[in-house]
Amino acid sequence: MARVFVSVGSNIRPEENLRLACAELERRFGDLDLSSVYRNPPVGFDGEDFLNLVAGFDTEGDPEEVIAELEQIHRLAGRQRGAERYGPRTLDLDLLLYDDLVTEGPPLTLPRDDVLKYDFVLGPLAELVPDLVHPVDGRRLADLWEAFEDGDRRLTVEDVDVEARI
Description:
Helix content is about 30%, strand content about 20%.
């Protein structure tokens, strides 16, 4: 059984899409551990703020099977894949960590580089599992978050019930 962490984000009907994502993750993988929901401005484009969280769960599936399930959930939310890398999203699900597996893609890079790069990934992950050690960096997530540049922190906690069923 592997412990997996997935980032969940949306800036198009975000509360609805976060609830959909959490319900589907729970249906497919079982019990979830969820961080708080955070609001942050978009990165790389102008647009509506995102709502983000991190979900943790256990799975017997391999990373490719987890990603296939995430893609099915994307489709349920109406996500359209296109050439635009930065833009509005109905739903954005990214596999961040799969146990302490380290791979350098393609097709898969684990841990995902976003963990060390973006406040909206590291902040919720460090909240959820502060004592977890990053498999490449070697530091606890809480220590990585503490060292994250204050000027790069743009998160605010939102009171959103993502466990409510739609």
